[in-house]
Amino acid sequence: MKSLAMKLKRFLKSEDGPTAVEYAVMLSLIIVVCLTAVGSIGKNAKSTFEKVAGQLGSTGAAP
């Protein structure tokens, strides 16, 4: 019975390395997706603000 417990303990310990690598890969993919989304949202916001500023400027509003 002790032998089985020791083997199980060794198996669980040996999974730590691959698990850490999997988490690192997932984290890097999440970061890439977040950066891409923020960049896209930033470009859309910039174009929207420029469009609104252009419309305000063409109406003769005071600066």
Report helical residue fraction: over 70%
Rg over CA atoms: 27 Å
Q: How do the SSEs run, as a string of H and E?
A: HH
Q: Report strand %.
A: under 5%
Total beta-strand segments: 0
Summed up, the helix count is 2
Query: What multimeric state do the chains show?
Result: single chain
Shape: rod-shaped
Strand count, sense and closure of the main sheet?
Answer: none
Provide the residue-averaged pLDDT: 84
Unreliable sequence segments: none
Name the structural class: mainly alpha
SSE order and pairing:
Elements: H1 2-14, H2 16-58
Can you tell me about this structure?
This protein is an all-alpha fold and 63 residues long. It has 2 helices and no strands. It has helices at 2-14, 16-58. The longest helix is centred in the middle third of the chain and has 43 residues, at 16-58. It is rod-shaped. The relative contact order is 0.06.
Keywords:
single chain; 63 residues; 2 helices
Short recap of the structure:
With 63 residues, the chain is mainly α. The protein has helices at residues 2-14, 16-58.
